[in-house]
Design a protein that fits this description.
about 450 residues; alpha/beta; Alkaline Phosphatase, subunit A; Arylsulfatase, C-terminal domain; ten-stranded mixed beta sheet; four-stranded antiparallel beta sheet; about 30% helix; disordered N terminus
Length: about 450
């Protein structure tokens, strides 16, 4: 009997020890998502103008994998966030614009922290949510254990937090807040790391910097370019860069940086109104040219990825869902189509392609869409179709639509076939495109269009 008890105790001991060892091997996961930051508004980019200085982001890039072909799935804020959190084309559930995503992602869509929770992860969201304005869409009702930030309204003030119609929240409760918002988001992120250093954690840091309005501490705004808006943007980027440095510093101080998968990217291209710089790309936010969707994209995981390298495989924000599950050793969900793929094999040099095509569509609002297939990219707005060879024309200057009608027709056909599988932007359910047609299968009513415009106004 004693021997049997001893064996049982020994087995339990090893089971507990094995479980603890497994937990200790689980990586921490940090996603830093900036807002409207131009491709050249990081100084590790060789195209950056002299006024740009991001020493902390540069240091992270130099020790990480720089993803030179990193994209977002939307050219505005909320659609990208919806795709990132679900690992699915946001159009599958009717999110084409900031108005639709900002009003709320359907509650049957499963977010990253909901997948991580069974594996023992504690999850925190800090900053801009923009995935629903009411309580049922709140971050803490989508799997996050902690939340500090604001629910919607992309153009949230940085200093004045007195508007309690659009308050700062801690958890589910609105609070009165003071301080420069970029700094406060950083402080909350660092505090989360300090408190959960011994847990496997997922931290989603969604800065609203450097989205409009152009606001920064006055002492940091220097007359560098002679352009007041651009100079203010540089001061905003300075505080964003300081924040990235402090988050990395917190991970290192607790000796958990090496086993942390840290992904830095921005949610879409920078704004023309904020005088962002996208060199060498054409266009800005709200466009499907490279300047609207091709973004700074950095991946760090020192224990598993060799830093100081580039990855030239096209990838995008939708891939982060699968990447996080892959890093955590969790299975991919089978209940709904998962459109993203883990980028880890590409970062390790094991594959040279993740997707045959990448698709963008805000067709529910203004008919803008694009498809990239290999070196070819088709950009469309209503009746205008432009075909570019990105291998020889990264600036998207030379429209080759007339020269290569066969490629144009092929990509157009693929886009309409893809769109036939997506949902209606109003109902979130009905299919709106007939793949054999050049036009929508049905027109939206005046009431539906009015409701859509109201959503978009609220999101701005």
């Amino acid at each position: 009997m004693r021997i049997r008890r001893s064996l049982v105790a020994l087995v339990l001991f090893w089971m507990i020890l094995f479980t603890q060892l497994q937990a200790s091997d689980q990586p921490n996961i940090v996603i830093i998502l900036t807002d409207d930051q131009g491709y050249a508004d990081v100084s590790y980019n060789p195209h950056s103008p002299p006024e740009v200085s991001t020493p902390n982001i540069d240091a992270l890039a130099q020790s990480s994998m720089i993803c030179t072909q990193g994209y977002t799935s939307g050219h505005v804020c909320s659609p990208t966030r919806a795709g990132l959190m679900t690992g699915r084309y946001q159009q599958r559930f009717g999110v084409y614009t900031a108005g639709e995503g900002g009003s709320g992602v359907p509650l049957d869509e499963v977010f990253i922290p909901q997948r991580l929770k069974p594996a023992g992860y504690v999850s925190g969201a800090v900053g801009k949510w923009h995935l629903g304005l009411t309580e049922e869409y709140h971050a803490m009702n989508r799997g996050f254990d902690e939340f500090y930030g604001f629910m919607g309204r992309g153009a949230h003030p940085y200093f004045d937090h007195s508007d309690m119609d659009h308050p700062i929240y801690r958890g589910l409760e609105p609070i009165k807040e003071e301080g420069y918002l970029t700094t406060r988001i950083t402080e909350e992120a660092v505090d989360f790391i300090d408190r959960h250093q011994k847990d496997p954690f997922f931290l989603y840091v969604a800065y609203n910097a450097v989205h409009a309005p152009p606001e920064a501490p006055e002492e940091d705004i220097k007359n560098v370019t002679g352009d007041e808006t651009r100079d203010t943007l540089m001061a905003m980027i300075k505080h964003l860069d300081i924040g990235v440095g402090q988050i990395v510093g917190a991970l290192k101080s607790h000796q958990i940086f090496e086993n942390t998968l840290l992904i830095f990217l921005t949610d879409n291209g920078g704004s023309r109104a904020m005088h962002a710089n996208h060199e060498p790309h054409r266009g800005f936010k709200q466009m499907d040219y490279e300047g609207g969707i091709h973004v700074p994209f950095i991946v760090s995981w020192p224990d598993h990825l060799e830093g100081g390298n580039h990855c030239d495989v096209p990838m995008w924000s939708i891939d982060l869902f699968a990447t996080v599950l892959d890093a955590a050793g969790l299975p991919m969900p089978k209940d709904k189509p998962l459109d993203g793929k883990s980028i880890l094999p590409a970062l390790r040099g094991e594959v040279d392609q993740l997707h045959e095509e990448l698709y963008w569509s805000s067709a529910g609002a203004n008919g803008k869409w694009a498809i990239r297939s290999g070196q070819w990219k088709l950009v469309a707005e209503r009746e205008r179709l432009e075909l570019f060879d990105l291998q020889s024309d990264l600036r998207e200057i030379h429209n080759l639509a007339e020269k290569h009608p066969d490629i144009l027709a092929e990509l157009k056909g693929k886009y309409y076939q893809w769109l036939s599988q997506m949902a209606d932007p109003v109902s979130g359910q009905q299919k709106i495109w007939d793949p054999s047609s050049k036009a929508p299968a049905k027109k939206r009513s005046r009431e539906e269009k009015k409701a859509q415009r109201a959503k978009e106004r609220e999101a701005k």
